[in-house]
Each structure stands twice: as C-alpha cells, then as structure tokens.
Fold these 4 entries.
Entry 1:
Amino acid sequence: MKNGVVIVGAGHAGVQAAASLREEGYDGPVILLGDESELPYHKPPLSKTFIKDPAAQPQPLRGEVFYSGHSIDFRPGSLVEGIDVAAQRLALAGGQDLAYDHLVLATGSRPRVLPLQGSDLAGVLSLRSVADARLIRDHSTASEDVVVIGGGFIGLEIAATLAAGGRRVTVVEALDRLLGRAVAPLIAEHVRKRLEASGVRILLGTTIERIEGDNGHVAGAMTSAGERLPAKMVVIGIGVVPNVELAQAAGLAVANGVRIDGRMRSSVENILAVGDNANFRHWQTGADVRLESVQNATDQAKLAARTIVGHDGDYTAVPWFWSDIGDMKLQMVGLTMGSDRQVLSGDPSENRFSVYHFIADRLAAIESVNRPADHMLGRKMLGLGFSPTAEMVAGGAEALKAALAALPVQG
C-alpha cells in the first residue's frame, strides 16, 4: 500500500472512486489525476442551464476543501502517456512517472468525430467538457441559425435549450426517428412533436454532406437532400467513443471499452475501470454493455473502492438515466434490450406518461416522461426483482405502492 491508488480521470467516476476509498477506510495514498484545469464538475447541466446563462459557472462535484480534508492528492492538468503494467508505473507528460499499487481507469469518453468537409471551421463544435460548453454559449450569442447534427440526448438537450433562447434550430438525424432507438418509438415520436411545437425543425432520414464557410467561419450546412441550411454554429452530437487508448497500449483486454469483471477488475487484476470507458457483462440482461450515465459511473466507482479494500460482491446496481429536453423530463430505469411487450400508463397528450417494458411477464425497464413517481417505483421494483401485472400498471402509482407494500419482508 506504499504507492496507494492512482485514479486516472476526474469526472463523476474518478471523484467518486476517491471519495469511496476514504469512506471504505482506505488509509493509503490516493492520487486523482485530471486532464482539465477545472475543479471536477457536474456534466449534465452543461447542455442545459450552463449554455443558456452567461453568468453560469461549473458546479463542483466536491468543494476544494474536500480533497485536502480527505488527503486526496488531486492533480489537475495531468496527462498520462502510458502504463507500465509490469513495473506498476504511469508515464506522465513532461517526463515524470508515478508508481501505483492499484490503478483505476476512469477515463470516460469523447465525442465521436464526423469526417465532413468543413468540420474544421470555426463555429463547428461538440460538447463534452466545460470548455466546449463555454464555446457553445459564446457562439450562440451571435448565432441566430444553429444546426445540430444528431438526434440523441445531448443534441436534443442543446437544441431545446437554444430554441428556448430564441435561436432558429434545425436538428438533422440520419435515422428515421430521434434518440437512436434508445427509447420506445412512442416516446421518440412524442419528443419529436413537442420539439417541433416549440419551434425546432427536425429532419429525419437526412445527413449532412458538407459544412460551408465564410472567411474561416461556418456559414451553412448542405443536406443529403440538397437543401442548404444557414448556420452560424453547427453542433455535432453523434455519440461518443470510450477512451481506451491507454488500456489498449498497455495490453489490457479491450472491446468497446475496457473489459472488466463483476468487481470492476480489468484483465490485469490490480487495474480497475469504471464509468463510460468500461464494458461489462450485465447482470440483468446477460449481454456485454457499456453504460454512459452518472448513475453507472458513481455505482461502479463505489464498487471499485470496495474491491480495492478487499470486499467481495459483484456489480448489481439497477441502471437509470435521465434527460431534460425542453418541458420533458425523461427518466429511464432498467434496460429495454430483449423486451417483447410494452404497457402504457398515462396520457401522452398531457405530456405525462410512462412505457413499461416486459420480457414475457418480467419487468425489464420503465421509460417515463414527467412521471417521476413511476421512475422511483421502477427503481424499487427492479431492485427487488418484482414485476407488476398490467392491471397494477393501469392502477397507477397507488396500486404499485400497495403491491410493493404487500411483498414479504426480506430477511
């Protein structure tokens, strides 16, 4: 334990891993390496409140005093260039190296690059960091026309926020529906209609052929249908790729993320991976997945800390996620893959409803729009392994609460 734990990445997963090590009683050195100069911050607000408020500042995950008060050696602006697995050392930019007993890779992910003519023009942006969000915010003040490429969660959050601020926003999505098949068709269609009613133009089944510029700055985007969309800013949001280069170069098993076991260990036992960059066999579906959510990053980091201090136990956290798009709070719990039956609760015309996903009679997931009670009950039901009947779902929250209350007490 003389060299302690080194954590690479100071996002939600990395900061939680450091905090959880102390909560679990680990008393060795804990070094947290971040590649940004900022104090670690919350990322979800960047696509919403941050870009619409010129005075908004990043929301710290923990106050500065937390790190010093818990003997966490936080080192901002640290770039890791390599891992020597045999020597248990990291090579840092600038020629330094750093020894470790355990290494936690919380390197996250980065926006997927779109190889387009004109993508290097000023005003062509993507969002992953607070620096990116500042650029989007700054450019939006002088951009009446904005094109968002990609109809996923991040793209739609940005589109809704900018449209609410008076911008003319066009979303261009290559698929025939929004949200990349990540939600039920009913919810995807509901989101499309609400966004269009708020003034966002949405082009489905369409791609951008090239981005056009004027004096080095974006001026428009040409679609596959031959339409020229005026734009002073183009935001690319076509998904992310996991940051696995360090792990791959070090010889760790990698497949759409760093391959980990149920205790967050990579193919090298004293190197763990958590968060967006980790790929694991999910307990609920039996499939290999890589989950991009604050919940997953946080829960995996907690378990990684427990693994390091010697506790047993595999990862069994119920996955959940949320997204705020205009006047819609989307909340998802569970995983829909493999589901073969859906039950609707609530009325989409009221902008408040949920879709319950089942595999045969087993509850697999719930997707909600402005129905937080359904979401919270879903987290309880999936955590307990309880599956309601269609009649219980039709009875609403009260019927589900009663069914849960009638369950035998777990002893």
Entry 2:
Amino acid sequence: MTPTPMSSPLSRRLFLGSLAAVGATTALAACGGSSTPPGAGVPSGAFGQGDTYTGPKVALSFWNGFTGGDGPFMRQLVEQFNKANPTVTVSMNTLQWGDYYAKVPNAVASGAGPDIGIMHIDQLATNAARRVIIPLDEVASGLKLTESDFAPVVWKAGVYQDKRYGIPLDIHPLGFYANTGQLSKAGIDKLPTDRAGFEAAVKALQAGGGVKQPFWVTATWPAHLMFTALVAQFGGSIYDAEGGKATFNSDAGVESLEWLRSFITNGASPANVSNDAQAQAFRQQRNSLTWDGIWMMNEWAKVNGLKWGAAALPTIGDKPATWASSHNFVVTTQATKDKNKLAASRAFISYVSERSIEWAKSGQIPARNSVRESAAFSALPVQSTLAAQLPNVVFPPAVPGIGDVTTPTFEAAVNEVILGKAQAKAALDAAAKKADALLADNRAKYQA
C-alpha cells in the first residue's frame, strides 16, 4: 500500500500526553465562575448566509497544530482559498498541539490570537466554558449543514449545553495494521477480525511465521487508546454519559486490561515496551501486528520492503468499537469584534470542508458524507477501509476539562498494569476514585 506521506505521529503523542499540563496552565486564563453563558454577546445574524464572502477586505488569523507533514496540505487549502477570495486574507500559524492549547486562551483574551482555529473534539466543551470559542449554530444554519451531512457521531459530539461549538473537519480512529508478508508465511491470508482469529494469528506467527513476539503491548502510548476501544467492545465505557463519574473500573475495564497484559504474560510481547517502540518494531519487522492511529499509514509507506495491510480493529469483545478523535473548526471570541471576520470565517470553513478530500490525503477520514461517498475517497485505500469504523467510534462526553482527567487516572492505571506493578481491578479502582475527584473539581471550576 502506498498512502501519501503525512506528519510524524509524535505531534499526536505530544498533544495527548500534554493535556494535564495544558489544563493547569490554561485554567489561569479561564473566565470560570462567570454567570454569563458561553457564547453570550455574539450578534444574531453576524455570520451571514451562504458559502461566499461579499464584504470589504478582511484578514483572518488561523491557528492550528498541524506542524508535521499534514501542515502543507492545510496550507495549500488556505492558499487556494485566498486566491479564490481576494477580499479575504487568511494567515495560518502552526504550533505544537500542547503549546497551542496552552497559548490560545491568553492570546484570544489579549486580541493577539486566532480568529479561527482547529480544536480536537475533547477540547470543545473546555474552551466553550472558558469563553474562548463561540457557538457556531448560525454557521451551520447559514451553510445549510445538518446532521445528515456528517457522520452522526462527530456531529453530535460538537454540542455543549445545547449549542454547537465545532464544525467537524475529520475523524481519525485507531486502526489495525499487519505485516502481510509475515502473515502469509504463517499460513494466514486475511487479517483477523475477531478475538479467536487474532489470538490464533499471534500463535501462528510465533510457530510458523518466525516471529517470537508478534504483538507488542506498550506501557504508554497507545495503550490507553487501545484500552478505551476495548472497554467499549466489552460493553463498558470510560465515563458515564454525563461525564460526571468514571466507569472504566467496570468488569469490561478489568477484562480489557487483563487481555492486554496477557500478551506480555504469554511471551507474545516484550515487557516494558516504551512509547512508540512498537511502531519502530513494526517498521523493522520485529513484530507483526499493531494497533495505532490512521496517521501511521504514512509512516509504514516510507519503509522500503515492508508489506502491510490495514483493517478495522478486530472485535475482541462483544461488539465492534474503536477510539477516535476529530479536528473541528472553531471561531474565537476575538473574532466577534468584527462582523466581517465572522462572515469571512463562515466562508473559509465552508471552502475547506467542501474540499476536505485534499485534507483526507494527509491521512484523515473526512467528516462530510459527500466527501466520504466520493470516488476520490474510495480511491484512498487505508482511509476508506478505516472509515467503516465510524459507526463504532468512541468519543468522551462533552464536559469541560474532560481531557485533563485521562493522564493521571486510567492512563496511569494502564501503565501500572502493563508493567506488572499492579493488578487490573485494584489499579482501575484507585484511578476511578481519583478521576471522580477530578471530575467534581472540574464541575466546580467551570460551574458545569
């Protein structure tokens, strides 16, 4: 398979691994405790109608975290928009995701930040509660966008307190990758789709494929993402539907974590596999099977001689499910000072959204149905294959601060169990207690 090269996966890892620090930093800039509802003060009708901008010349500051190989794809779309819209100048600024989420609130408050930006799905409620971003219901209605135009899971996830804060651009799920050359040597001609098939493939690879440790389970990234997917597959969830209580210490959570640990116990994975080591091993053909983000397809494509295939995550539990995130367009409170910026923002969002097949080539699944249903998208083998998982995507609840809870709680518990330092039930129970306290603190902080 030969997908188009994209960014290093490091940017995604830095983003997800830095959320706890970001939450502590940006909380200082929050307007938490205000009785003013998020989005208040946005003039009615300010965004206008239609997908074009007809006002006077205006400049838009556009910030995002596309610092890797995905950046040129977005920059090209920005340049195309500017050329097609001579009265609008969009200036794109990129930062590492961790820096981005730390800097945006203060920059917006001072008037030196972005007018329009990109945010991950689990950051929308937090930044809405902090009055950093504004509702986009009028953007959606002005562009005649409804749930029927998008994958329902990502459209619904952009709503906080009955208002829409994100216009979804893409979805990026976990995928299942396999060294097809090693599978063939072991007598397997198809990627396994269920628990029995997956476990049989591991044994066959050890026996006939000549791979002593075919499935490396990491102690850090992406183990907590795998855990999230598995919990849903076994019928559980990370949090309750309201995001007020941790539920990852359920029977589903324990079974998920014990299943991951079992590959170390039975010798199919080394112990103490560090961050990204499993991906490096896959490049070097020292392992055969790995679960990682869709963006990794481009990393494998760079390796000469590596024969590989991609598929949806195998269904280890009772039903299919996968972890995923999503990039969403947002408009900041800074832009509300100029109605022309709001109208131009609507036109820019529409332009990129309609042309998100170009963004898909960077290693993403477009959120818009019309793009995913196109022949051009069908011609992208990995993206179109992993898009079949969209009905089974797991997103966190839309509550402020939810992204700050992961690292010190269930991610830490997964790490302890994978390293053999704790039993699954005890580690998850302790982490759930800590998560409940953090969730309560967030409710008080954001008055949510």
Entry 3:
Amino acid sequence: MRRIAMTGAAGRVGTLLRPFLRQHVEHLSLIDVHEPADLADNESFVGADLSRLDEAIAALNGIDGVVHLAGLAGGVDMTALLQANVLGAYNLYEAARINRVERVVYASSNHATGFYPRGQIISPIDPMRPDSPYGLSKCWGELVAGLYYDTSGIRSLSIRIGNAGAYPNSERSIAIWISARDLAQLVEIGLTHPSIAATVVYGVSDTDEKWWDNDLATRLGYQPQDRPRDYARIEDRTEGRVARAFQGGGFCEINHDGDIRLRDAEGLVRKPETVS
C-alpha cells in the first residue's frame, strides 16, 4: 500500500484507526472538513466536503486506495443523511473512478441488518434489514460499491462495523465490538486481498456472543486478536422492549410503534414463538 486516503479522518473511528494504518502505508492522506490533530510525518491533511463532487475529485488525486469513514454516524434527519452519507458515498466512488483509484474500504454498519432478531445468526449474503434512516444510508453505500465494481472495476470491501468504540460499554456492545487493531486488519485485507470484488463482511472482534456468521472474513485471512469481554466497562444501560428484540438495539426504536413484527427469509410473517 502506498498512497492511501482516509475520509472522515478527524472522527472517532478515524482517530482510533490512524495509528495502526499509517504504520503500513507510505503516505496517509487525511480527508475531512476538520483538520485532525497530531499529524505524523507520513500524514497530510486535505480539507474537502464530499457532498461536493469537485472537492472529492481533487482530494483523491494521486491516491491508490481509500478508507471511506466519512458521514453521519446515526440520526434521523434525512436531509443531512442524504448530503453526508448518500451523496457523499456516491461522490466518493465517482471521484475514485475519475482518478482511477483501484480500492475502496467502505465503513458500512451493523445497522444495515439491524432488524434481524438477536437469536438469529446471519451472514453478509442475507438480505439487508436496515433499522433506521442511518442504516438505510449504509445499505445505499454497499450498493454503490457493487455498482462501481460492475461498471468500473473498483474493488471494495464493505465492513459492517459492529461497535468501534474505545471499549465495549454494554452487553450488546460486547456481542458486536471490534478493536481498532482488528478493524485495521480488515482494512488492510480490503486494500490488498486479490479476491476482493464488491465484498461485504462484519467488523467484529473475537466475541463469544455469535450474532453473525463471519466465515467469509475468515476465508479472506481475518484473525481477530482481541476479545470484547477483556476490554468491557459495562455501564448501566436499560434497553426497551423493541431494542432488546433486535440486533440493532436502540436504533430499532426510531419511529417504531412498539408492535414487534418478524418475517422469514421469504418476507412472510414469522410468529414470535418460532424465534429461538
């Protein structure tokens, strides 16, 4: 890996990921609307608003691969999500096409499938079940990645990140947490593995609470080094009835009427008593 760009570099995940990633690249270009702190010798800042295509094109000039973290991490304001997550993702890929960037690692989210019940183990090839406007925007980004592989040959790894906080702070986050160094390992796979096309994996460390079948990540060489329970600092958090029922947790409660509904793989009604 030579010249790699990281969008959203001043954000929480970018701040945690930078120390690991910059060890393995010749140069790391940090793209954001805010300048990150403490730039290393092989890092540089590029100010850009990805909702503006011309700025996205300029920011990716001379770049070999992109780690796309930019966007809103939640929320229900569709105007804001359309600008940051929807238009931003599209412009990022269009700028990559114009600049002949070969690789993109897209920071997707577990909220793209958050309406699956917690008792059901799912894999990346199961249908999307977004749990919120935010989750819906991440589904869009994964589909954009597929489009640009099919039309332009840009290889993408979409990582459905579980919880990338500094440490797990709830029982739910223990089930889905990923450490910065494990996430960096997946990012490196996405930037270098020869079999990546438009590939989706889950971003989770070595947890005992299996919600996701991540066999594809394993076949690509992913070997998580950290166990969430070893880092947990549990806070007193009470989840509501809807949040407890689904993998997306509190995101599932957004605009929810409180009536828990389940459906099977064919989209038919699934009775609650049949859920393990």
Entry 4:
Amino acid sequence: MKNSYSFQIYSSANQLPESWDKLAIATIFLSKEYLVILEKSAPENMSCHFIGIFEKEILVGIAVSQFVDLNQLESFGDRDKCIKSWIRNSVFKNFCSHILLIGNNTLTGQNAFIISENANTTEVLKTLKKAVLGLKEIFKNQGKKVHMCGLKDFCEEELSHFKIPEFDPYLRFSTQPNMIFNVRDNWKKEDDYVAALSKKYRDQYKRARKKATDLVKKQLSLEEIKDQEEVIYDLYYHVAKSAPFNTFFLPKNHFAVFKEQLQENFLFYGYFENEKLIGFNTLIKNGTDLDTYFLGYDDSIQREKMLYLNMLYDMIGYAIKEQFKSIIFARTALEIKSSVGAKPLKMYGLMSHNNKLINRRLDFFFRYLEPETIWKERHPFQD
C-alpha cells in the first residue's frame, strides 16, 4: 500500500500554506507571525526552514528546523578555562560544527513540531525523518556538510514516540531541566505569593526588594527599544558570553523585530538607575503560559542590587496579576529559579552523527563535553 504521507520544505514564512496556523494554535512559537521573526532576525550562524507534513492533501504536521554553523562563532562560552575548553572547542569545530536541528535552539521546551490529533504520529515522524534527509540534501547542494542531526526538547512521554526503527541510530540524552513556575489558583496578587513563602524565602524576597528600591522599571516601546539598541546589545552580550555553552549570538535588531512582529505579546522591561539602562528582561505571552526570553544586565550593579532575583520576582508578580497558569523559566540558573518556586521538568533530546564510528561513541563524547549539572533544589513554600 502506497504511503499517503509526504513533506514539503519551505525557506520562507511567506510560502507556508494557509492552514498552517490552524495547527500552530497550540503555541505561538510555531505560528507564522513568530516564524517571520526567525526569518528576519535569526542569529548570523543560523538558517531556518519550515516543514509541512501532509496526509494526501491535508496538512497534518508542522515543524521548524535550524541549521547552525558553529565555525562562525568566536567562542562557545567561557565556563571552562584551560585544556578542557580547548579540547571541547577543537572537537566542536572539527567534528560537530554543522548541526541540523528539528526544534528551536533559542527556546526551551517542545517547540519542534505539532502533529494533528487526527494524524498517525508514527507515520508523521517517519515522514519528518525523510524531511531531515531532504534538508541534508539542500545543504549539500550549498556546499555544507551536516555533521550532526538533533531533535529537542521533549518530556519523557513525548520521547516514547521515537521508539521506531527510523530513530534507532539516535542517542537519547538529557541536559539541564526546564524550570517551570506554576501559578496557584488562589493567588490574585504578588502579596499572596509572598505569604505562601517560608520565613527564610520571605526574608530573601524582602532583602532583594529593599536592595532595588532606587531602580526604575519601565516597559519599553518599539521606538525606545530601537533608541537603546546598542546599550541593550551590550547588556545582552555580557550575559550571553558568560553562559556555559553558546551555539549562537542574537543580532542587534532581534528585540526590535520581536516587538514589531508580536507587539503586545512581547514585553520588554528595562531597569534604570539614574535614567541609565542597567538591565532588561523579556517575556512572551504564549496562551496560558508566560515564556521568559533573553535578558541582560550590568554585572556589578546586578550583584549590588540583586537585580536578577528582582527580575524573577517581577515576572512572578506579572504572571499572577495577569492570571497566567505558568511561567516557563527555561534552563540555566537552576538553583536561583528553584529558590523562587520553579520546579524542574526533565527534558530529553535525540542526536545522531553522520560518522558511524563517532555515532557509536556519541554517549561518551556527550558526557565528557557536557557533564551533568550538579545543583540543589530549593523548596521555598511553607507547604
């Protein structure tokens, strides 16, 4: 019997079929309006494609892919000094520099694809694997050899869908968890959250708030984001280059394009000291979820004013006020996010290397180059 599933690869959001957004309704991060942002302001070393999967003529699956060229980066991150950092950088540049990803490397969570409830999930994933081969052919014709293919970020239940022969060569791995903050139904204002904290963490809240009393927090308009673009980028870059591992850096126009495209669904908050921008954070409204996005700050002031912690409290206050169900705090800074009440959700990915010898030892290389993060979960609530 002839397989009725097929795929189509699109290089621009303008090419997407009319029915695309009917499937993308579950998340803003696969909607046409968001994919335009990826197209207009993706990192310099990243190129995006969009995949439609059809059962006969009907669109039953949508996905986003990103090709990342690590050779275009000056640094992968400053966490590990000395020999280990040198080895890691050398390995990535020579053997893993061209990565083809089904998913979104700028976000945490399952933003890779959506499958229609009426579709056969196994057949859609088999077709998605064929689309990966089609993408590899596109890049081969451009003179770019794909070293690694990956899919991210899935919870344990979602991972079970990949138990099919097509994905047998792929290594299943987990990295830092996604930190999720659930807003309780009985919280109507920030004070309700503070009242739920144990004394130790209520004292932490009061201390942080006191430290930042002279800072002014303001939501920036598109024009203000454009006016402050250089300062914003410097603050962002300072934080980004200190991250454990980088596969990209955002372009300077990224936040302006975001605001222009998503408008009220994208919130940009600036923190000012004596009218000077010394930090910012960004939020994306995604249905009942509030997704945290990139931030930046002046490190000396951050420590003195406990700015990062205050940003987390501000996000919680906004989510409660606007009655969001949860805040997606993403990965990194696990302990401090845990201290404000976020809980870890274990995330999984899949990866495969084009070199069969390396692919057989992929587990070893992955564990050596990116060891498990050791951190202590906090329990800030009274109950």
